[in-house]
Design a protein that fits this description.
Layout: E1 4-7, E2 10-13, E3 16-17, H1 18-25, E4 29-33, H2 34-47, E5 54-58, H3 65-73, E6 77-80, H4 83-91, E7 99-101, H5 108-117, E8 121-124, H6 127-140, E9 144-151, E10 173-174, H7 175-185, E11 192-198, H8 209-227, E12 234-236, H9 253-267, E13 270-273, H10 277-280, E14 284-295, E15 300-304, H11 313-317, E16 323-325, E17 334-340, E18 349-357, E19 364-367, E20 388-393, E21 396-401, H12 406-410
Parallel strand pairs: 4-20, 5-6, 5-13, 6-7, 7-8, 8-9, 9-10, 9-11, 11-12, 12-13, 15-17
Antiparallel strand pairs: 1-2, 2-3, 4-14, 14-15, 14-19, 16-19, 17-18, 20-21
Helix pairs in contact: 2-9, 5-6, 7-8, 8-9
The structure holds pyridoxal-5'-phosphate (PLP).
Amino acid sequence: MHDFHVRRGQLYCEQVPVDRIASAVGTPVYIYSHHTLLDHFHKLQRAFRSLKPRICFSVKANGNLAILKLLVQEGAGLDIVSGGELFRALQAGCPPEQIVFASVGKRPEEIREAIQRGIFCFNVESIPELLAINAEARRLGRTAPVALRINPNVDAHTHRYITTGTAESKFGISIEDAEAFILTRWRDVPAITLLGFHLHIGSQITKAAPFLTAIRRVGLLIRRVRQAGIGVEYLNLGGGLGIVYKDERPQTAEAFAKVVTPVIKQLKVRLILEPGRFIVGNAGILVTRVLYVKGTRSRAFAVVDAGMNDLIRPALYGAYHEVAPLKQNGHGGHRVYDVVGPICESADVLARERRLPELQAGDPLAIFGAGAYGFVMASNYNGRPRAAEVLVKGRRWFLIRRRETPKDLMRQDVIPAALIK
Ligand SMILES: *Cc1c(COP(=O)(O)O)cnc(C)c1O
């Protein structure tokens, strides 16, 4: 599952003691395992080998250039959601024809850039957006390949902030609207090539059933569209595969593929997958250090040097992340702590009511499952430079992002001369 192990009372990432990295680079620091990252990618590849899908890693889950490059080298494509991520994907050396572009709010200049670069496919989230892409493509004298993102109205049974496939959510086009447009108004978009359909019903989904329901609903649409003489070559299943944070029992890649493969074969479509969390979630930890231990009458707090600006998932989604000391040297007994950051917000709690070995100032802690939606969501709130990132491969480790400095944070500030006395 991942390559973070306790050996002789010490946490290792692959063959490197995590504490050695924390001492060299400082804290907070994100640490990723090269082996875990590639292993998860290969697991998915292997599970779906009979379909040979295009696997486009979701850049928004972790956009570090070194990580993107490693996955691209293994044959991954990339799933992007903005012009900024397009730039990043190209910088990472991803061939444009391996890039798919989702997002409910693509700007005209982002659409133009993507067409000019020759990306594989736009995942289109509304009819007005489809018309806009058509208009940009015509202006450029090009055609734009698209998949319509279908909102299949399926409840993925995940956190309401990360469910995206129900009728109440802002994502995608209803089956009825997509069908009506394709069958009656498709001549309005002569610069569009329809590759197929796209689904992304949510994230951290632990069972195959909602995926299957969604595929069946889109399957009926595919049949009707084909009956009208319009070709459908691709089905993009999106991402959303769940991982273990605490006591979840998510489907394995093998089990997921076993359920999905026959339906995809029946539909005679080529499969695209866009995993994010599944690849990188458990491949990364956030290492932080205890600054102070303080108590009130009812609670013990471990105040640490990482905050919600470094890892916002607990504050944003009420997400659970496992926490453990890097060294089990033990100052004695155990105690229940709230592990809290230094940010001036009551929501800045990384872990609530955790039984941990008694902590002292200076103790380093690992926060697990931080590889996806961790660093990418970091901010500079409270004037905090963003953390460093490190990749471990076997016995070696590499800095893959320098820690920001206070100077970095002011780079874009302007003090207009006219305002100065
Ligand atoms: C976020 C996202 C993904 C990745 O989701 P995971 O749950 O991390 O696998 C894939 N596709 C789209 C369109 C997304 O928005």
